[in-house]
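Human: I would love a firmer grasp of how sequence relates to backbone shape in proteins. Could you go through the record with me and say what the backbone is doing? Here is the record:
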Amino acid sequence: LTSSGTPFWSAPKRCPVPLAFDANNQLHLDFVLAAANLRAYNYGLKGMTDVEYIKSKLSDVMVPEFTPKVCDCV
C-alpha cells in the first residue's frame, strides 16, 4: 500500500513480470553482453565482443525458474 492507503500496483502501473530469456533475441543478447563487459571492467578485466562465443556459453547456463515471494516487510 502507498502512504495514501491505495494498492501500489494499481492502474496505470503494471506489475512486473519475469521475461523468458532468448539468446536469439538481439535485445536480450545486447543486455547480457553489456552487463558482462561492465562487470569485467569493474574487476579490471578485458571485455569481450565475440557474440557467437557468448551465445554458446549462454546455452550451457541453467537458470532456475523465478518464484516470487510475498514480502511483508512494511
